[in-house]
Amino acid sequence: MKVLLVEDNEMNRDMLSRRLERKGHEVLIAVDGQEAIAMTREHRPAVVLMDMSLPVLDGWEATRRLKADEWTRGIPVIALTAHALPAERDRALEAGCVAFETKPIDFPKLLAVMEAVAR
Predict the structure, then answer these.
(1) Residues 59, 60, 61, 63: is their CA dihedral positive or negative?
(2) Domain tally for the chain?
(3) Using one digit for the tens of pLDDT, what is the confidence trace for 78-99?
(4) Does some domain include residue 75?
(5) What is the CATH number for 70?
(6) Pair 34, 62: CB distance under 8 Å
(7) Cis, bond preceding 45 (omega within 30 deg of 0)
(8) What is the domain extent for residue 101?
């Protein structure tokens, strides 16, 4: 499946993108929320993996904008964050994320969630 990985931390981005590619996914990369919106509109990925703490435009606002846009509304967004507090999870879900995964990422669980929401 085509996946947009939105992550500003180079080490996290490289590690996760390599693991996803090894599982056969086509991985597109964005490093901030603004770029994520543009790439989602242009490439129409099956799923967006959205870091929430991003430069330029944070993941919460980027997700809100994707969900407000008729062209990208139906693309599932999975929050990826180090913010594990229940309030952060609620905030991500309120912004429009369909799932919330904390860092460090449980990769088998993430793959299962991706499969479930991309259907």
Answers:
(1) positive
(2) 1
(3) 999 988 888 889 999 999 999 9
(4) yes
(5) 3.40.50.2300
(6) yes
(7) no
(8) 6-52+60-81+96-105
pTM of the entire predicted model: 0.96
CA distance 119 to 116: 6
The pLDDT, as a whole number, for residue 98 is 97
Pairing of strands 77-81, 99-102: parallel
37 found inside a domain: yes
Only one residue has tokens 């086509």, namely 26
How would you classify the pairing of strands 26-30 and 77-81?
unpaired
Q: Which residue has the tokens 């990422």?
A: 105
Q: How far apart are CA 35 and CA 103, in angstroms?
A: 22
**In this structure, is residue 111 part of a structural domain?**
no
User: What pLDDT sits at residue 85?
Assistant: 85
Mean pLDDT of the chain: 96
DSSP state string for 87-114? HHHHHHHHHT-SEEEESSP-HHHHHHHH
CA nearest neighbour of 34 among 13, 6, 67: 6
